[in-house]
What does this fold into?
Amino acid sequence: MLNKRRLLLIDNSDAARTILFKEISRQMPDLDIIACATAGEALTSVKRFEFEIITTALSLPDMDGYKLIEEIRQSAKNRDTAIFVVSGDTDTHIMGSNPDDTNAVTAYFNKSEGHKPLVNFIINFLGKDSQSPVKVLYVDKSATSTAITSSILSRNEIDFIHLSESSEALDFLREDIVKNNCCTIDVLICDLMLTSKISGFELIQTIRNELDLDYLTLPVLLMTIEPAEDEQTDFTGIFGAGANDFITKPVNEDDLLNRITTLVNIKRQNEALNV
It folds into this structure.
C-alpha cells in the first residue's frame, strides 16, 4: 500500500479549521488530517510528512501565504503536492497572479462560498474510500526487471496488470476505454525496450495521439537503463514522446513508490477538477 494519505489544513481561524476538520473527518475517517494555525507549524509538518492535499489561507500571523507556498514547493516530500488557496478575493489573485505562480498554486477557492465547495473537492479528489487501490498497467519484456518491479508492486498492495508487448497494452487500453467510457488505469509503467515492433517511445506516442490519453488522464512512467559514463540520458526523447517521468533500472523501491504516488495524485487531481 502506498504511503498513508494525509491532508494539511492551514488557517489562522479556529472556526474555519474546526469546520473543515470535522466535516472531512466525518466523511473520511481513515484520512490523517493535520490542522495548523501558523506557517511555522505548517512547515514543521511539511518537513516530516508527505501530503496529498494542502489547503492554506493567504493571511497568516507569521508569514505571507505565497511565501509559505514557495517554501513548501522547495521541500522534498511535498514538491508536487496539490496546494489550494482559500481566499476571500480569488478573482483578484487569479487576474493579478504572477505566471510563475501557476505551478505553485493548484487552484483557488472563494471563502465567501462557504466551506462546502472545498470539502466536496477534497472528497472527490481523494475518493470517499481512502483505501481505494491504485491501478497500474506495467509493460516490460525483461524477466529480471519484471520480477523485481512486480515484487515491489505486490509487496505494497498495488493492483497491477503486467503485459510483455506494447501491442497487448494498446489493446488492453482500447478495451478499457470502450468498456468504462474512460481510462481506469492510474499509471502506465513502460520499459523503453520492448520485443514487438512498437518501442516504448512509440507506445507512449500512440497512447497520447491515437488514444487521446493526455498527461493528466494517463500519467506514464518510463523505465530506462542507467546511462554509461560516456552517455547522457535522452531527456528530449523521453519527455518529447509524452512520458510524465522516468526511472532507471534496477529500480529502487522507495523511488518507484514515490513516483507512482506523484503520478496517481496528478490523475486524481485532474479527475476531481473535472467532476
